[in-house]
């Protein structure tokens, strides 16, 4: 299953498109959504919260806050952090973090697949 495009502010596109951006709300907090899933993927790719944040155009403090929210929202942490040291800290997804990201992306893929016919009909009605 292809990874969804990273969340970005909407930019004008040549072709109409529909985007599914589910949010998992737990105890009144967004436990997982498009920005947090992009952050998880970037942490997995870069091995660092600061490098992941930079790749997404996000401040380190914002990224760290999102990681804390996710880690507190799930039964186990999604991101494990190795602090400091001569080379700086490192971060990686836990097995649960990888599973949560896979399930979230699966939800998006199934939503897109199940509405494809309706989207084709709706798209024809656009200017």
Give the helix/strand class. mainly alpha
Order of helices and strands: EEHHHEEH
How many distinct beta strands?
4
User: What value does the average pLDDT take?
Assistant: 91
How far apart the termini lie comes to 31 Å
Count of DSSP helices?
A: 4
Low-confidence blocks of residues: none
* Rg estimate, integer Å: 17 Å
**Beta-strand residue fraction:** 5-15%
Per the CATH scheme, the topology name is Arc Repressor Mutant, subunit A
Strand order, largest beta sheet: 1-2
Can you summarize the main beta sheet? 2 strands, antiparallel
Q: What is the CATH class designation?
A: Mainly Alpha
How many independent structural domains? 1
In CATH terms, the superfamily is Winged helix-like DNA-binding domain superfamily/Winged helix DNA-binding domain
Topology summary:
Blueprint: E1 24-26, E2 29-32, H1 34-46, H2 49-55, H3 60-73, E3 79-82, E4 90-93, H4 95-124
Antiparallel strand pairs: 1-2, 3-4
Descriptive account of the structure:
By secondary structure, this protein is mainly α. It has one domain: Winged helix-like DNA-binding domain superfamily/Winged helix DNA-binding domain (Arc Repressor Mutant, subunit A), CATH 1.10.10.10. The protein is 50% helix and 12% strand. The chain contains four helices and four strands. The protein has helices at 34-46, 49-55, 60-73, 95-124, and strands at residues 24-26, 29-32, 79-82, 90-93. The strands form two sheets. Strands 1-2 form a two-stranded antiparallel ribbon. The chain has a two-stranded antiparallel ribbon with strand order 3-4. A hairpin with a 2-residue loop joins β1 and β2. α2 crosses α3 (60-73). The protein is elongated and about 60 Å long.
């Amino acid at each position: 299953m292809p990874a969804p495009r990273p969340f970005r502010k909407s930019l004008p596109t040549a072709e109409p498109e529909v985007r599914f951006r589910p949010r998992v709300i737990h105890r009144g907090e967004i436990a997982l959504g498009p920005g947090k899933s992009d952050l998880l993927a970037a942490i997995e790719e870069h091995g660092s919260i600061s490098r992941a944040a930079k790749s997404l155009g996000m401040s380190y403090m914002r990224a760290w806050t999102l990681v804390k929210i996710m880690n507190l929202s799930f039964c186990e942490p999604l991101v494990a952090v190795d602090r400091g040291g001569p080379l700086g800290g490192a971060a990686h997804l836990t097995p649960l973090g990888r599973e949560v990201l896979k399930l979230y992306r699966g939800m998006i893929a199934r939503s897109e697949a199940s509405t494809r016919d309706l989207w084709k009909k709706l798209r024809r009605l656009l200017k």
